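Hello,

I think I submitted the adenosine monophosphate job twice by accident. Can you confirm which output corresponds to this input? Input:
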Amino acid sequence: MEMEECIFCKIGRGEINCNKVYEDDEFLAFRDINPQAPVHILVIPKKHIAKLYDTEEISLLGRLLYIASKIAKDEGTAESGYRVVINTNRNAGQSVEHLHLHLLGGRIMHWPPG
Ligand code: AMP
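Support: Only one job matched these inputs. Its output is below.
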């Protein structure tokens, strides 16, 4: 998909509204439009990376994870527990081809995941 058409690129550029919880020069975090838990936040890099395996920028991936951990604390879900998920490709149910980390919390999670 072209970056110009990518919905998460558009959200990152401010062209589509989102319920923002965090932003810096490189990353944006916003509430999922179809939440699967009381806390369901997506963290994205603003630059277009389609899949987790499409980048070798290790420090970008580290910062993505770090931001999620900070937000989990801010949302009050760190102590009770939360889950971070990066769906990749069809079997995992990736529906938006722009790297995004799901931060899920506020309820008991089951294992194995569905
Ligand atoms: P995935 O299935 O892992 O690709 O996750 C994509 C997620 O993006 C889903 O949980 C959707 O509910 C969410 N989503 C899609 N469009 C939007 C949007 N405009 N604002 C917020 N979340 C969205």
